[in-house]
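Lest this sound abstract, we think one record worth quoting, the chain in one-letter code, the fold tokenised, each line plainly labelled:

>
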Amino acid sequence: MEIKCSEKECTGRCEKAIITMANEILSMGELIVYPTETLYGLGADASEPGCIDKVRRVKGSPPDQGISTAYLSMEHASEYLEDIPGSAWKLADEFTPGPLTMVIEVEDRTEGIRIPSQPLARKIIEDFGPITSTSANKHGAPPPVDISTAKTQLGGEVKLYLNCGRCSVGEGSTVVRVDDSIEIIREGAISAEELGDVVGC
């Protein structure tokens, strides 16, 4: 199923029925495709390992590939993750909500934190809770800057496609590993120079 926004530009005035529908589908362990400012994302219940495995299977991703989680804020993320490094909070203050993914080590695992700025994405997270944050495409295939790219690749394996037009940024988030230092894993919408200005290197 595809639902298309009637607005030419996102105003954030999303119909409650759309949010409720997304919540119901996610609650059933199914997948949605939702807009972010960077690319369309493939969303599932981030608290259920089976749902995360389903995301990997649909994308055709390697079984050991990490899947980041979308939160409303760092405060929201801290409700689920302990001992978030101080440098992650510093980066978040400067660049989120926005196109940054921070990879951190918590307890015995690696977690990716993504805080999107796109209004519909934020309303879904606010209503449902944390959801997976990975691009809505097959592994290694063209990035989904619009809904048609996602639908062509994922087809009926996704229950709900939320069409909000072309993504405003149109490239992937910058991914950084954060611990005692900052390591850029993938440079995207935020440049290395911008990051360096904030962390002082």
Notes: The chain has one domain: 2-199. The chain has seven helices and ten strands. Helices lie at 16-27, 49-59, 74-78, 86-95, 119-128, 147-154, 192-199.
